[in-house]
Design goal:
Blueprint lengths: L1 H27 L3 H24 L7 H30 L3 H7 L7 H25 L1 H11 L1
Helix pairs in contact: 1-2, 1-5, 2-3, 3-5
């Protein structure tokens, strides 16, 4: 049940992240890498709040400890998301195959790569680190109480 809640939280926060990224990049005209970073920050704040209040039980750990651990994980998550999106976009954006296939839409290919990177980071970094590092004390307290 916890993993379903965690991924539901991640989906809501990813929608916020992506909406802000696309708005800043496409409407405001901010460089896609900066827009990706800003979107990731907004999505991360949303995720921290939802996870603390809904996904992981909050009893047994102080907000400041969770915030410090979450910040550590979150900074690396932002780096992974931003750099991963940048790397995939820059490596492939001049591909003659993609330019021929996508035409003028090739300028927005970063959105596809942002999706791919976000999914990988969520499964391989965010969820494991939140479950076993950020909310570890809480998780262990619950198991001790059940035994």
């Amino acid at each position: 049940m916890r993993i379903i809640k965690a991924f539901s939280s991640a989906q809501v926060c990813s929608l916020i992240d992506f909406a802000i990224t696309v708005f800043l990049s496409s409407v405001v005209g901010i460089y896609y890498v900066a827009a990706t970073a800003i979107g990731s920050v907004c999505g991360g704040i949303c995720n921290c709040i939802i996870n603390y209040r809904w996904v992981f039980p909050k009893s047994g750990s102080k907000k400041c400890y969770i915030a410090i651990k979450y910040l550590t994980v979150w900074v690396l998550s932002i780096v992974f998301n931003t750099y991963g999106t940048y790397l995939l976009t820059e490596v492939t954006k001049n591909s003659s195959f993609l330019v021929g296939l996508l035409g003028s839409y090739n300028d927005h290919i970063y959105i596809v790569y942002k999706c791919v990177v976000a999914i990988l980071v969520a499964f391989l970094w965010n969820y494991p680190m939140q479950r076993f590092f950020v909310y570890r004390r809480i998780h262990l307290n619950i198991k001790k109480n059940k035994i």
